[in-house]
């Protein structure tokens, strides 16, 4: 999840990708368990902040989440973005030859959130095969879109876009706001894992 680089290598008709890497259920179960831990624990292994700073960022993103839920009851992140005049676009793009792939990005002036709907659909379709019945709802296309939109919404509302603290806050906000039972970092880990497969390339 990065922030607006209108990549010059973008193509308009990118064929769909194929994931071929097998995932075994033990791995997925382990990942769900470790990323299902509280953010303060999950982030310790991903970010080099001390725990007080992590806790502070998580608290702040929790406050924003509560604030938005209070003032936009029953609305998801995409709907709130629309209410705030932020344009939400769904698109498919690749960066760096398909190796670095983001779920979303955002820009100010005008405020735009772009969601990488192509990659989200691919991840969702694959996870639909691997996730257990009770977990599948967290990997639906709509759910991942919503989480990705919440992540970018945080960046735009907080004017906090660059750097690890902004990422930490955005992930924490997205989890709290959407009620995801694990850190959205799991989506990235799964994507990274799947993308190691030979088939995960634009051809
Ligand atoms: Zn981000």
Helix-strand layout with pairing:
Blueprint: H1 25-35, H2 39-42, H3 51-71, H4 77-83, E1 87-91, E2 104-107, E3 112-116, H5 117-130, H6 141-158, H7 164-178, H8 185-195
Bound molecules: zinc ion.
As residue ranges, the low-confidence spans are 2-16, 198-203
Give the fraction of residues assigned to helices: 40-55%
Name the helix and strand elements from N-terminus to C-terminus, one letter apiece.
HHHHEEEHHHH
How many DSSP-defined strands?
Answer: 3
Average pLDDT over all residues:
84
Please give the count of helices.
8
Radius of gyration: 16 Å
Total domains: 1
Classification by helices and strands:
mainly alpha
Tell me what the structure shows.
This protein is mainly alpha-helical and about 200 residues long. It has one domain. It contains eight helices and three strands, in the order H-H-H-H-E-E-E-H-H-H-H. Strands 1-3-2 form a three-stranded mixed beta sheet. A hairpin with a 4-residue loop joins strand 2 (about 105) and strand 3. Helix 6 crosses helix 7. The two termini are about 25 Å apart. About 35% of the residues are buried. Zinc ion binds near residues 151 and 155.
């Amino acid at each position: 999840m990065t922030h607006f680089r209108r990549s010059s290598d973008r193509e308009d008709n990118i064929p769909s990708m194929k994931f071929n890497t097998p995932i075994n259920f033990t791995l997925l179960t382990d990942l769900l368990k470790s990323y299902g831990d509280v953010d303060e624990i999950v982030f310790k292994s991903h970010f080099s902040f001390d725990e007080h700073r992590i806790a502070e960022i998580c608290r702040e993103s929790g406050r924003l989440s509560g604030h938005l839920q209070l003032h936009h009851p029953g609305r998801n992140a995409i709907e709130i973005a629309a209410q705030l005049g932020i344009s939400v676009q769904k698109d498919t793009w690749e960066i760096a030859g398909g190796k670095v792939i983001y779920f979303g990005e955002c820009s100010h002036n005008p405020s735009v959130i772009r969601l990488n709907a192509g990659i989200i659909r691919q991840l969702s379709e694959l996870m639909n095969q691997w996730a257990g019945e009770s977990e599948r709802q967290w990997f639906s296309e709509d759910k991942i879109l919503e989480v990705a939109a919440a992540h970018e919404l945080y960046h735009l509302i907080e004017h906090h876009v660059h750097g690890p603290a902004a990422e930490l806050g955005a992930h924490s906000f997205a989890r709290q706001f959407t009620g995801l039972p694990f850190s959205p970092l799991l989506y990235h880990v799964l994507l990274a894992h799947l993308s190691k497969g030979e088939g995960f390339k634009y051809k």
